[in-house]
C-alpha cells in the first residue's frame, strides 16, 4: 500500500505532484474498490460489522491485491444505511448486513452480477436503481464539497492527496501572494456557511489589515444547531479539506497558529481531526516550513462542552481561552480583537472546505454557480418528516420543492406537508405556499427565516406549530448564558405564555404580548442567540396564526399534539378487539370486553402517551 | 475512603500533566477528568484549581456552565435521549416519556440503584435517523416508545 510507504516529508510543490500521480497509478492498478460508509448514521445500523465482514472475507479469499476495502465518512443517504458502493461502476447496495457479504463478493465482485434485493427501490414506482448516480436522491445534487466523502478514507492522507488534495495549498504558497488569495476569495462571492452569511473575503481582508501580531485562524465545528450534522460529517469524512482551507486562510491573513473548536459530542470528528493534523505535519503540509515554502502554521484542537452559545464567535473565543463561554458586545470586531485580543479569523467548517475548491478552479468558475448574492453550493441536512433523510449538497437557488420532493422523495405515509424549518433556533418555519421559493441567503431572510447552518426540518400535518415554537423557546431558554436581561427574562416569559396557550389557558391578547416581547428581544439582546430567538415565534405567527387562535380561542390543538388539549378515544365501529393496544399501553388504561367487542379506554388512567394510536393498524384510535 | 481519594488525585494529576498544566485547556482537562471518574468530584475541582493556580470559582463556573459536566455521580449506564429538532418532530417526546415511566426517573436523574442515568441532549448529529437514543455511547436510530423496554433490558 502506498499509504504505508509514503508518509515521508514533502519538500516542494513538485514532490507533492509526484506523490499524487503515484497514488493515482496504484489506485487504477486495482480493479475494484468497495467503499463502506462508516459515518454516524451507518454505524448506528451496524456499518462497522459490515466493514469487518468485508475485510475478513476478502482476506480469506486472497483477493486483497484486486479489491480495496475502504471505510469512508457519511455518503449523505443515511436513511438507507449501511451503504456499500462498489467502484468504479458505482453500484449502490443499501441496508447491507454482514450476512450479505459472501454473496456480494461471489456475485458482484467475481461474476459481475448485480444483486437485486440489495438495490434501492424508488418508493412510488417500485423501480430498482443499480447505480449511485441514478438514485433520485443523488441525481439532483451538486456534490462539490461533500462528494469526496464517498471516495476517501478520512484516516488516510494519501486518499485525499490522490484526489488532488493539498494542490490548492501548493498553488497558494508558490504562485499567489496573500493579497491575491484574499482577492480570489472575495471575487468568488463565498459567504460564511456558519449562519450569518458574512462575506468571507471581506472578513479575511479586515483581519489581514488589522494591526497586531500574532493573528489566529479558528475553525468553528461547534455545530450546536439541533438538526444539523453537515459540519460533523465533513470533519469526520474529509478533515484534510478543512485543514487545507485553514492553512490557506492563515497564509492570506498572516497567521501561524490556528484552532479547531469541536464539540465534545463528536468524538469521531475529534479523532479524525487529530489524526489528520498529525499526518499533515509528518508530511510537511502543516507545521514548520510547509512544503519547503518558508511559511509555517500549526493547528490545535479545542473541545467544546455542549453549550449552544459557544458557537457564537466571542463566546467561542472565551471558551478557547479556557473561560466560561459568554458572549461579549462586538463594538470591536473579532477580526481586530479576537482570541486573546489579537486579530482573528473565525470560519465555519463548510466555509473552509469551500476554499480549496475556489483556489483550484478559480473564482470565476465558482461564482458561476448560485444566485446573484449567494454563490456556490450549500450542504443541508434534510431531516424530519421526509422520505429520504440525509445530507444533501445543492446549488444555491434551488427551490424548496425540488429539495423536499425531488431529492427528499416527499412526505412519508402520504401525509400532507405542513412546514419546513430552516436556520435552526434563529430561523423560521415556512409553509407550503413558499415551496416554490429559491433557496439562498437573501430569499430565506426575506421570507422570515434564514439560512443558518443548513438544517432543514420537514414537518407534516401531525406537527403542531405552536408546539414547535415552544420547543425552540425552551431550547433557547436552556441555552441562554444569562448575561443580558432581554434574553434571560424575555425567553422565560415567552415560554411561559406559550405553556399557557398549550395547556388551554391562553388569553386573547397573548399573541400581541408575544409580538411585543419578540420585538424587545430582537433589539435588546447582546448576542445573536437572543437576537434571533424571536424568529421561530414570528414566523409561525406570520404563517400559522390560525393554529395559535385554535389553541387560544377554541381550546383545541388541530394537529393533536398538545396533551392538555387532546384525548385519545376508541372508534367502536372500527375496533374488533385485536388487543394490540392493550399490550402497548404502559399504564393499563385499555381493557377488553371480550371477543369482537371494542376495547374500552379509561380516560382517568390514560397518560396520553399515544402508544395505542401508534400501534393500531385499523385506525380505531383517534385523537381529538 | 483513602484509597478512593488517592485514585481521584492520581487521575487529576495524570490529566493535568497531559495538558502541561495549561489553564487555557481547562474545558478539555475537566472533560478528561470526567471521562475517567464519570463525574467531577469536589476534590478534583479543588486540585485542578490548586495546580493550575486559578481561583476555584473559575473552575466551578466552567464546570457548571457546560452541559457535559456533572457534579454528581452518575449511573453505570448513560442513556441520552436526543431532543433536537429533527428528533422532536418525529416523536422524541414520546420516547423520553416512556423512558421516564419505565425507569421511574426524570430526565437528569439517576436511578436509586445507580444503574441508569437518564439525560436529554440537543442533537447528537445523527438527525437522519431520529428519534435517536445514545446508550453508553452506542447510537440507536428510529427509536419508538415500544422499543424502550428492550433497550433498557439490553443494558446488563
Ligand atoms: C448562538 C449562536 C450560535 C452559533 N453557532 C454556530 C455553530 O455552531 N457553528 C458555526 O459555524 N457558527 C455558529 N454561529 C455563527 C458564528 O458566530 C460565526 O458567525 C461563524 O462561525 C463565522 O463563520 P463563517 O463566516 O464561516 O460563517 C453561531 C452564532 C450564534 C449567535
Ligand atoms: S442574548 Fe442571551 S446568550 Fe446572548 S449574551 Fe444575552 S443572555 Fe447571553
Ligand atoms: S394514550 Fe397511552 S396511556 Fe392512554 S390509553 Fe393509549 S397507550 Fe394507554
Ligand atoms: S389496536 Fe386498534 S383495533 Fe386493536 S384493539 Fe386496539 S383499538 Fe381495537
Ligand atoms: S452515515 Fe452513512 S450515509 Fe450518512
Ligand atoms: S436532532 Fe436528534 S440527532 Fe440531531
Automatic annotation (TrEMBL), chain A:
Recorded GO MF terms: 4 iron, 4 sulfur cluster binding; FMN binding; metal ion binding; NADH dehydrogenase (ubiquinone) activity
Keywords noted in UniProt: 4Fe-4S, Iron, Iron-sulfur, Metal-binding
Keyword Metal-binding assigned: yes
InterPro entries: 4Fe4S_Fe-S-bd (IPR017896), 4Fe4S_Fe_S_CS (IPR017900), NADH-UbQ_OxRdtase_51kDa_CS (IPR001949), Nuo51_FMN-bd (IPR011538), Nuo51_FMN-bd_sf (IPR037225), Nuop51_4Fe4S-bd (IPR019575), Nuop51_4Fe4S-bd_sf (IPR037207), Soluble_ligand-bd (IPR019554)
SUPFAM superfamilies assigned: 4Fe-4S ferredoxins (SSF54862), Nqo1 FMN-binding domain-like (SSF142019), Nqo1 middle domain-like (SSF142984), Nqo1C-terminal domain-like (SSF140490), Thioredoxin-like (SSF52833)
Sequence ranges assigned to domain 4Fe-4S ferredoxin-type in this UniProt record: 566-595, 597-624
UniProt family annotation: Belongs to the complex I 51 kDa subunit family.
Protein name: NADH-ubiquinone oxidoreductase-F iron-sulfur binding region domain-containing protein
The species this protein was found in: Dehalogenimonas sp. 4OHTPN
From TrEMBL, chain B:
Residues at which [2Fe-2S] cluster binds: 82, 87, 123, 127
GO molecular function: 2 iron, 2 sulfur cluster binding; metal ion binding; oxidoreductase activity
Pfam families assigned to the protein according to its UniProt record, in alphabetical order: 2Fe-2S_thioredx
Superkingdom, natural source: Bacteria
Keyword annotations from UniProtKB, A to Z: 2Fe-2S, Iron, Iron-sulfur, Metal-binding
InterPro entries: NADP_DH_HndA-like, NuoE-like, NuoE_dom, NuoE_N, Thioredoxin-like_sf
The protein's required cofactors: [2Fe-2S] cluster
Cofactor binding note: Binds 1 [2Fe-2S] cluster.
The family this protein is said to belong to: Belongs to the complex I 24 kDa subunit family.
This protein's name: NAD(P)H-dependent oxidoreductase subunit E
Organism of provenance: Dehalogenimonas sp. 4OHTPN
Organism lineage string: Bacteria, Bacillati, Chloroflexota, Dehalococcoidia, Dehalococcoidales
